[in-house]
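Sharing in case it's useful to others searching the archive later.

Someone asked me privately for the predicted structure of Streptogrisin C, so I'm posting the question and my answer publicly. Question first, with the sequence:
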Amino acid sequence: MPRTPLLLGAAAAALVAASALPAHASPAATAAPARAQAPTAPAQPDDRATRIQKDLRLKLGGTFAGAYVTKGKVVVATTDAAETAEIRAAGAEPRVVERTERTLASVQGILNKNSGKAAKSVTAWYVDTDTNTVVVQARSTADARAFVKASGVDADAVRIERSSERPRPLYDLIGGERYWTPSAGCSIAFSVTGGYVTAGHCGNVGETTSGANQVAQGRFSRSSFPGNDYAVVDTNSQWTPTAKVTRWDGTYETVQGATPAPVGTAVCRSGSTTNTRLWCGTIQQLNATVNYAEGTVTGLIRTNICADPGDSGGALITQTGGQAQGITSGGSGTCRDGQGSGDSTYFQPVTEILDIIRPEGRQLVTGSGGPGPQPGYCDSSATKVTGSLTSGANQYQPSGGYTSSVSGAHTACVDGPDGVDFDLYLQKQSSSGTWSTVAQSTSPGPDEKVSYNGTAGTYRLRIHAYSGNGSYTAGYTKP
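And my answer, the predicted structure tokens:
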């Protein structure tokens, strides 16, 4: 059963611990809606295959019928036999097929709209470029045929495949969010390999957990309290560790590391009881000792941030830089007044448990990205500009271009956020005023660099969002 620490002192009667869920609150009464994991993109082929697919999709347009890699070769399909030479020139093996990529996407779209007509034995449907069909997977082929017929799609464009698969929802582990033990609830601090860390007083070794959605989640594999106040929960395959800490407004902090911060550093706490916003303050002291009724806990971080019962186990992270600091242990005061003034909340430093589990091959889950571009990639550029793109859009930098009066080397770069695919084109203006691309970088990812030895003239950067949205920094250096 969760062990509830209560901070002792002269005003003990007025102090409230940031601990497990109060006994009068039932898990079912406050469970949050299920959070489905964001779909994970399929494994990408090498950069060469990705570039070929990207370039030919743009060049072939409506006749493009997909691309795939087989036995080390890039195959590009088209419905127009006259385009086979162009496909070979691009470095791919051509294949002439009956249906375009858009046609197959339309068939899949109709099936999507009629998904309610699919029996439970029909488990998945997807475009299969290799067979130039839409595959419908099902444990019962009769049910699959009935679904296809009820949807009204062209049956010749569909291939039914018998499958024993039984897909299930997957969920993200996110710092600050609720989890349940059989008797009460606490909050996730940070994801680690194979699970997450939380407060030790929230559960004993062997105790089971479920997510905020009441889906079975994991089991405590380590728990230390008092003395320390940390625990590790090992989760099942239905839950995926992430580098996220929720801000409770639909956005997230990204954990970048766990470098300990000094006294006076601005920090924020995320917990599942006070989940109206991210609560922030500063580190007041390090290496503090708290004498709870259950025993003494040493080496804690003391802050002026409020917390309430159920916030225990939640995350403490630096306000900037994404550095994980601590696991919510206990405290005094409350956030219910909306102010949290005069409160003290204590946190178990996260580095202690990370040092313990690191020899086992487990580590903090971090992300190199964040809400915007990361510093460093374009630092060497003589001129830097910023902007923001939505998927499919272009921007030209700088406005009106830049002029070089001498011949020589031009370098340019773009630095975008993780999870997007931004491309970079260096363009030169002709005497007639038209622009042509003289160098380009179109690798699958957010960051690109180009270099070009050119004559005097006017140049510009074209930045294209092949996929994804976000802010970027671009830079260029002229001769």
